[in-house]
Amino acid sequence: MHGPQWLERGMKHVWLPYTQMRTTLPPLPAVGTHGRTITLADGSELVDGIASWWTACHGYNHPHIRAAVSAQLECMPHVMFGGLVNEPALTLASRLAALLPGDLERVFFTDSGSVAVEVAMKMAIQYWLNRGRTGRTKLLAFRGGYHGDTMATMAICDPDEGMHSLYQGALPEHFIADLPVDADSTRALDDLLAQSGDSIAAIIVEPLVQGAGGMLFHSPDVLRTLRMLADRHGVLLVLDEIFTGFGRTGTMFACEQAGIVPDIITLSKALTAGTMALAATVARTHVFDAFLSDNPLHALMHGPTFMANAMACACANASLDLFEREDCLEQVARIGRQMRTELEPCRSLPHVVDVRVLGAIGVVELDHIRDMNALKAALVAQGVWVRPFRNIVYLTPAFNMTTTELGRLTAAIRTVLAQPV
Question: Which sequence positions carry the modification called N6-(pyridoxal phosphate)lysine (predicted)?
Answer without folding.
Answer: 269
